[in-house]
Amino acid sequence: MPYPDRNAYPDRFYPVVDSLAWVERLTKLGVGTIQLRAKDLDDSQSLQMVTDALAITAGTQAKLVVNDYWRAAIVAGAKYLHLGQEDLADADLNSIREAGLSLGVSTHDEDELETALAAEPDYVALGPIFFTTLKSMRFEPQGIPKITEWKKRIGNIPLVAIGGIKFEHAAEIFAAGADSIAVVSDVTQNADPDARVRQWLGLGKEAA
Questions:
Q1: How far is CA 82 from CA 65, 86, 208, in A?
Q2: For the residues 102-122, what does the mean pLDDT come to?
Q3: What is the pLDDT at residue 174?
Q4: pLDDT over 70, % of the chain
Q5: Region label for 162, one of left (φ > 0), alpha (ψ between -120 and 50) or beta (otherwise)
Q6: Strand partners, 83
Q7: How far is CA 165 from the centre of its chain?
Q8: What is the CA radius of gyration of the chain?
Q9: Could you tell me which residues come within 8 angstroms of residue 127 by beta carbon, excluding any fewer than 6 positions away?
């Protein structure tokens, strides 16, 4: 399966990180889509972090996705936003759309999928595909067959698979119907993160 155009959103490799240092590192490596997911920031802190992250990615091919902080994303002039279900419930979707933000939404079960689709998202994320220790989850691992089921449900909306996924799973995940794979620990906890990122970015060259 060929790697998509760099302007595609989200890219097939979609790392999720929690610091400006990681945003800068991934940007320099040529990553196309990067989600900044930093928790427990107040309004001032979130605005500063989003502003700084946008400055890092400015003039590069990297598309910065802001997790949760939709107000900061609007004020800072971000273009991409990702919301979990709780954040979606509290967000002002009209303001988000008026600001021209693309919106991705997390889902874990049927009810959450219906809620996400009602928001007319630009992509839907499904997780966790596999067991993950990075965050406490009230949902069991979804498994690869769920990817195929979700993709049939959402049609042309891009589907992002997330949760415990490693590079070695990529071919099977894409074959099941995922359009993109969100990666956390396979990059941030890897012994050689840069080499791992290059592996992910090289998927298209191998498929070409």
A1: 6, 12, 30
A2: 97
A3: 97
A4: 91
A5: beta
A6: 105
A7: 13
A8: 16
A9: 106, 108, 142, 161, 162, 163, 182
Q: Per DSSP, what are the bridge partners of residue 201?
A: none
Q: Is residue 41 a contact partner of residue 69, using CB atoms and an 8 Å limit?
A: yes
207's tokens: 């498929």
180 CB neighbour count, 10 Å cutoff: 24
Q: Residue 118: is its pLDDT beyond 90?
A: yes
Whole-structure pTM value: 0.93
Show Cβ contacts of residue 149 under 8 Å, excluding neighbours closer than 6 positions: none
pLDDT in tens, 44-96: 999 999 999 999 999 999 999 999 999 999 999 999 999 999 999 999 999 99
Residues in a beta bridge with 156: none
Long-range contacts of 106-113 (CB under 8 A, 24+ apart): 106/82, 106/162, 107/150, 108/137, 108/139, 108/142, 109/139, 112/85, 113/150, 113/153, 113/154
| Residue 168 per-residue DSSP state | G
Residues 158 and 125 sit within 8 Å (Cβ to Cβ): no
CA–CA distances in Å: residue 105 to residues 26, 94, 157, 195, 205: 23, 15, 11, 29, 29
> What is the pLDDT averaged over residues 196-207?
79
